[in-house]
Structures are given as C-alpha cells and as structure tokens.
Amino acid sequence: MAEAHEPRFTITMEQLQDFEFKVKFDWEGVDELLLDEPAPLGGSKGPNAARLVAAAVGNCLSASLLFCLQRAKVEVNGVKTQVSGALVRNEQKRLRIGDIQVRIELDTPAERARLERCLGLFEDYCVVTQSVREGIEVGVEVVDPSGAQLFSAPGK
User: Fold this and answer.
1) Residue 148 contacts by C-beta under 8 Å, 6 or more apart in sequence?
2) 3-state secondary structure of 7
3) Residue 23's domain spans which residues?
4) Which residue, 25, 72, 81, 107, is the most exposed by fewest CB within 10 angstroms?
C-alpha cells in the first residue's frame, strides 16, 4: 500500500429502512446524502453506489481540468460533464461496473493551443480516476453492536 500523505477521511452511513442509507460526511456544514438501490431492491430515492462511483470519476476529472486551466489563467465560461457507466456480470454472474465513459464539455474562448498543456495533464492529477484505474485497496470488517468481530478481510 502506498504511503498516506493526507489525513484519513471518514464517512458514516446509517440504514434508515430497506436499502436506504443516510450518509454523513466528515466536513462541518456539508449536507447529508440519501443513498438507495433501484427497484426492485430499493425505491430509487437517491443514487446507488455505482452512480456515486461514476459521479466521483466525472467530478474529479472536471475539477482537475478546471484547476489546471485556472492556474494557466485560461478563461473558462463553464464545464458540463456527462458520465455513463455500464453494469456487466462477471464469471460468477455478479454485477460489476464494466466501464465508465466521461464526456466533458468545456466552454472557453481560448484557442486550442492554450489548452494543450492542461489537456495533457489533468487526467493524471485526478485522484479518483487514477485510483479506480489502478485498483483501490479495500479492507472489510463486520462487527456486532458490542464491537465483537464477525468477519474480517484485509485489503489486498
């Protein structure tokens, strides 16, 4: 595992009912988010995890491009991003995110030559996209209300 350079972040989720979860972020003043699964499991009252992954990839790429352009003092009138994802089944017939396609519409009066440097860099600076592409180490632990461990799978 790579060395951590920033403090860890913590997100807390609590089941409300069925597959609805309330997500609390570790920043003061940030609204909670409702997650839910689509029918027939849930009621589609909020995005599900696959849509959050796609949104995270799209947001990170858009923000990375915008940051680079701002530092290069390139005028940007707006950024609009569309992300689509495909769900596929693996050999065990489990659903997985098969691919994510991102289309960024950049509204700028700048000539293409002024954009070239950022267009060549922004993707590499996107924390989420590069982490997803490389694979993220995920450790899992299940405990009961007393904290007794029921299951543990260390990150790979």
Assistant:
1) none
2) coil
3) 1-47
4) 107
Q: What angle (nearest 5°) sits at the alpha carbon of residue 133, between those of residues 100 and 137? A: 120
Query: pLDDT tens digits for 102-146?
Result: 999 999 999 999 999 999 999 999 999 999 998 888 888 998 899
pLDDT digits (tens, 9 = 90+) for 8-42: 899 999 999 999 999 999 999 999 999 999 999 99
| Cis amide linkage into residue 7, ω under 30° from 0 | no
Q: Do the Cβ atoms of 1 and 9 come closer than 8 Å?
A: no
* Nearest one of 77, 85, 115 to 103, comparing CA atoms: 85
As a residue count, the chain comes to: 156
Q: What are phi and psi of 128, to 5 degrees?
A: -70, -50
- Residues β-bridged to residue 35: 21
Asked whether residue 41 falls in the same domain as residue 70, the answer is: no
The verdict on 143 and 83 lying in the same domain is yes
